[in-house]
Amino acid sequence: AQSVTQLGSHVSVSEGALVLLRCNYSSSVPPYLFWYVQYPNQGLQLLLKYTSAATLVKGINGFEAEFKKSETSFHLTKPSAHMSDAAEYFCAVSGGYQKVTFGIGTKLQVIP
Amino acid sequence: DADVTQTPRNRITKTGKRIMLECSQTKGHDRMYWYRQDPGLGLRLIYYSFDVKDINKGEISDGYSVSRQAQAKFSLSLESAIPNQTALYFCATSDPSGGGHTDTQYFGPGTRLTVL
Predict the structure, then answer these.
(1) Does B105 contact A at CB distance below 8 Å?
(2) What is the pLDDT of residues A79-100, one digit of tens each?
(3) Which of A33, A57, B42, B86 has its CA 20 to 30 A from that of A45?
(4) Among candidates A36, B26, B29, A68, which has minimal Cα distance to B6?
């Protein structure tokens, strides 16, 4: 069985501030972990993906995430928020032959 | 042009009607998926297909059926729509880089379905 928990369905940050979106996972096999972003009226697109090659994963638009096995976490960060980062962010887990399980999503609001 | 397209983009229908949502892709991917998105529930998998002859149920397939007409086309049908099927529906594709479901998925723009 596998699952992801995204802490905080809504997060607000000021423009230029650190973005931190939290994701904890549960998996009985070595996990693949994903962060997807959904901009308004669009489908999801991949931000970054962990495949066990490196624990710190860099993605598009300045985002990165660190895989911490001891904490079963895969939090998404960006040093400085931009207005264009306002979107909904989904953490997801897969592994072995298990289907992808998505979290409930975190809506990021960027305040000017 | 978009790699994954969905038609219609918006649809309002009545309880009991049959509805078909269509998905086409030009990415050349073998794998295709249908999800529904509900506020507070994230995305849930309805059906998936790893190739034209392979159709599999996801976690919430009851009340839905699918057809894989070709590598590029994957349709979702609601045989008799009910109000709790009101949701945002997404089609996605992936190109298998490994086994299982660990591939990056590419999503269409979504279909907003309202069942009255």
Answers:
(1) yes
(2) 999 999 999 999 999 887 778 8
(3) B86
(4) B26
Amino acid at B110: G
- pLDDT tens digits, one per residue of A26-64: 988 888 999 999 999 899 999 999 988 789 999 999 999
Label the pairing between strands B10-13 and B111-115: parallel
The distance of B17 to chain A (nearest Cα, Å) reads 26
| Contact flag A95-B110 (C-beta cutoff 8 Å) | no
The residue among A108, A78, A73, A87 whose CA lies nearest residue A37 is A87
Q: Is A104 on the interface with B (CB under 8 A)?
A: yes
Q: Phi and psi of A97, rounded to 5°?
A: -110, 20
| CA B70 remoteness from chain centre | 15
- Is the Cβ–Cβ distance between B90 and B107 less than 8 Å? yes
Chain B residues with beta carbon closer than 8 angstroms to that of A94: 100-102
CA B83 to chain centre: 18
User: How many of the other CB atoms lie within 10 Å of CB of B104?
Assistant: 16
A22 in Cβ contact with A65 (< 8 Å): no
Q: Looking at CA atoms only, how far is residue A66 from chain B in angstroms?
A: 18
